[in-house]
Specification:
The complex is a heterodimer of chains A (409) and B (295). Chain A contains 11 helices and 21 strands. Chain A has helices at residues 43-51, 93-103, 108-121, 137-149, 167-184, 195-201, 219-224, 229-234, 263-269, 293-296, 330-339, and strands at 4-12, 18-27, 32-36, 58-63, 66-67, 78-81, 155-159, 187-192, 204-209, 212-217, 241-248, 251-254, 257-260, 274-280, 285-287, 300-305, 308-311, 316-323, 351-358, 369-374, 380-382. In chain A, β11 (241-248) and β12 form a beta hairpin. Chain A is elongated and about 75 Å long. The model of chain A is unreliable at 398-409 (pLDDT under 50). Chain B is mainly alpha-helical and 295 residues long. Chain B is built from 13 helices and no strands. Chain B has helices at residues 2-16, 18-52, 72-80, 84-114, 120-132, 135-149, 155-180, 183-191, 196-207, 209-225, 228-232, 242-245, 259-284. In chain B, α4 runs antiparallel to α10 (209-225). The chains are: A alpha+beta (409), B mainly alpha (295). Chain A binds chain B through residues 51-53, 72-74, 77-80, 82, 84-90, 99-100, 103-104, 131-135, 137, 140, 147, 164, and chain B through 182, 184-185, 187-195, 198, 202-203, 206-207, 209, 288-294.
Chain lengths: 409, 295
């Protein structure tokens, strides 16, 4: 059990690519931190630097107060679960779990006891004498975890541990991992590209983009108060809708109409005319007919043609086409969509679409015009040039989070 | 309900239909082909076996099944000493060559599979080049060199060329096996607290065991079957292997052919090979790595 501190940690590969760029991260003892980002953002490299499988090009890594930059993986006492499990195929489940203990030259009786305990925790007792090849994916995953928990490491490191499992098993193992982490109280760093895993598992989530740390915050904070376009677009499913707009005199000119902004926005942003990118979460839309009058004042209504409706019982998604606009920021939005792998299929058309999550009781119909309401108090505004949030509110968190700053990009 | 059952039974039937058709066509061809090849390979061996059990008087009768079995050829070769000492030489030389070659090849192949060092391609192509080299072309110079170095007619004098020719082959086989082993396994071992050598010994070598055994068998075969070096670089029973010694067999009398004795010796010589294959054939079966990582 110990805290892990990264100070200005960078990774440059021999060919000059910078995989991890000057990352600061403090992970408290017993904390569950998620490293998340799209593929190729450097999250796995960062994890492998923590565990010692990749060299650290510059910066300092301390585990439990001790600088371990030069220590080999075997001297860091960390346990890692690999994406493809990396079980030793020639050893039985029992020998696989006991492998770290055997290397540590632990007394055999004691080791047997620890293996039995770990197997019991993970419900592997009946499989102890099987070889990994005779196990299902979920069981192999549990063996890999058994190998990690059996030896009381400084920290658990998970490298996309659930990505090889089918959807149902993934949900099951996700709660399992959460339960184990709470039970052992061991510091955990967990890499994933799946924002659902990130949101559900972590005490704090660190969002990486192209090797640069974007924001480190609790899932709630990330969702409600994203620092920039990237974080806003990455966190949340379906993801936030982005629209180019013009801000002028306390009003926002959107492709589907003009909406007045609440007073606190106006006081922060001033009255000058400027282009912005507006981010609206799908759930901040509603069928205007279903919004109660006292709530209506928080937002404004506009007419919209509904293209497609997906009714799922507990919720309803409405897709509305909006003209794309050729304003500033459109190119940036497209690039962001590509990076987040959310590019819509007809990206070359002059229309983009908005996803609105409506009350399932809504009577809106496909192909018909409807009156929609948007909660303007929950709008996010971004600078089209830098992508930085214009209404981000820095918060003092109880965790020793370094100020989440985006370095020049 | 009715539609569901109809749909679910119809589909597998449709999918299964073409496969037996293909199999029926192929099977007789396979059987006939296999029989021909097996006969072709086994008849000379049966013939030698039959000769080895014939006595001097019936050796030329041309019958494949001896009229009366006699062990006289076997007792002759083990009694005279012209066979026993070469047999010991052969076993010793082949085993020592195999052990050293496999040991060195394992280390070299691991380096080639896992490390990126300058000249790696050169090492591999040079190794392949050596393996392709015809032994007969270097045997003359070797004869002279070995005489001046004092290696002529000694065990090391044969072990060294055997290793030279078998190492490249072993390195190629083993590096292919090492490359198949997922790198994550060594990384997992390192994280679990293993040193590089422990990871190699406890994880990699056991997993590459099929490759180790395959190359061991091939090296052993090469050393055991060699004739060119054996006949050229030896002169006495001190180091002459059995393949060369067969040449120096004499009949029971000056005027009789040693056919029976040679046949018996040839059979005895194949026995170690058969034993090796029987012992290791299960190990050679690859696929030991299945289940290590999700494919």
């Amino acid at each position: 059990m110990s805290e892990i501190t990264l100070k200005g940690v960078s990774k440059r590969f021999a060919d000059g690519t910078i995989a991890v760029d000057n990352v600061d991260l403090d992970i408290a003892d017993g904390e569950f931190v998620i490293l998340v980002g799209p593929s190729g953002c450097g999250k796995s490299t960062l994890l492998r630097m923590i565990v010692g499988l990749e060299d650290i090009s510059s910066g300092d890594l301390t585990i439990g107060g001790e600088r371990v930059n030069e220590a080999g993986p075997k001297d860091r006492n960390l346990a890692m679960v690999f994406q493809n499990y990396a079980l030793y195929p020639h050893l039985s489940v029992r020998e696989n779990i006991a492998f770290p203990l055997r290397l540590a030259k632990m007394d055999k009786d004691k080791a047997d006891q620890l293996v039995a305990d770990a197997a019991k925790t993970l419900e592997l007792t009946e499989f102890l004498d099987r070889k990994p090849a005779a196990l299902s994916g979920g069981q192999r995953q549990r063996v890999a975890m058994g190998r990690a928990i059996v030896r009381e490491p400084n920290a658990f490191l998970f490298d996309e541990p659930l990505s090889n499992l089918d959807a149902k098993l993934r949900v099951q193992m996700r709660t399992e991992i959460s339960r184990l982490q709470k039970r052992f109280g061991t510091t955990t760093v967990y890499v994933t590209h799946d924002q659902t895993e990130a949101m559900t598992l972590g005490d704090r989530v660190a969002v990486l983009r192209k090797g640069i740390m974007q924001q480190v915050a609790s899932p709630r904070e990330l969702y409600n108060n994203p620092i920039n376009l990237f974080v806003a677009g990455f966190i949340g499913s379906p993801s936030m809708n982005f629209l180019p707009a013009i801000l002028k005199g306390g009003k926002l000119t959107l492709p589907f109409g003009e909406i007045p902004l609440p007073e606190e926005f106006v006081s922060r942003l001033g009255h000058d005319e400027k282009p912005v990118i507006v981010g609206i979460r799908p759930e901040d839309f509603e069928d205007a007919e279903l919004v109660e009058d006292r709530d209506k004042v928080r937002g404004s209504s506009f007419p919209a043609r509904i293209d497609v409706i997906e009714w799922m019982g507990s919720e309803l998604f409405a897709y509305l086409p909006v003209p794309k606009g050729d304003g500033q920021g459109q190119a940036g939005l497209q690039e962001l969509a590509r990076e987040l792998e959310q590019e819509d299929l007809h990206s070359d058309s002059d229309e983009s679409q908005i996803v609105a999550r409506l009350d399932p009781a809504s009577r809106v119909r496909e192909g018909e015009e409807a009156q929609l309401w948007v909660d303007t108090s929950r709008l996010h505004l971004f600078d089209p040039e830098t992508g930085d949030s214009l209404n981000y509110q820095a918060q003092d968190e109880p965790n020793p989070t370094p100020a989440p700053g985006q370095s020049s990009n | 309900m009715a539609t569901i059952t109809a749909g679910s039974t119809a589909r597998p039937a449709a999918r299964r239909a073409p496969i037996p058709k293909d199999r029926k066509k192929i099977q007789p061809m396979w059987v006939v082909g296999s029989i021909i090849i097996v006969l072709y390979a086994i008849i000379p061996i049966l013939w030698i076996l039959s000769l080895s059990f014939k006595s001097q008087t019936t050796i030329t009768d041309g019958a494949i099944i001896p009229k009366h079995f006699s062990w006289v050829n076997y007792s002759t070769i083990f009694k005279t000493g012209v066979f026993v000492r070469p047999l010991i030489n052969s076993i010793g030389i082949a085993i020592i060559s195999t052990v050293i070659a496999v040991l060195l090849a394992t280390l070299a192949a691991y380096a080639i599979a896992r490390l990126n060092f300058p000249g790696k391609k050169l090492v591999l192509s040079a190794a392949l080049g050596i393996a392709m080299f015809p032994p007969i072309s270097i045997v003359g110079p070797l004869f002279n060199m070995w005489r001046s170095l004092g290696l002529y007619d000694t065990w090391p004098g044969l072990i060294i060329p055997y290793m030279t020719f078998s190492l490249p082959m072993a390195i190629w086989i083993l590096s292919a096996f090492f490359r198949q082993i997922p790198w994550e396994l060594e990384q997992a071992a390192a994280v679990d607290g293993a040193t590089a050598f422990q990871a190699f010994r406890k994880v990699i070598v056991p997993l590459a065991a099929p490759g180790v055994f395959t190359s061991a068998i091939l090296v052993f075969f090469f050393a055991w079957n060699d004739f060119v070096f054996a006949i050229t670089l030896t002169s006495t029973d001190r180091s002459r292997p059995v393949t060369a010694a067969l040449n120096f067999f004499t009949g029971s009398s000056q005027f009789s052919q040693p056919t029976g004795a040679i046949a018996a010796a040839a059979i005895v010589v194949t026995i170690p090979i058969i034993i090796m294959v029987l012992i290791f054939q299960r190990r050679i079966v690859a696929g030991l790595t299945s289940g290590a990582v999700k494919g």
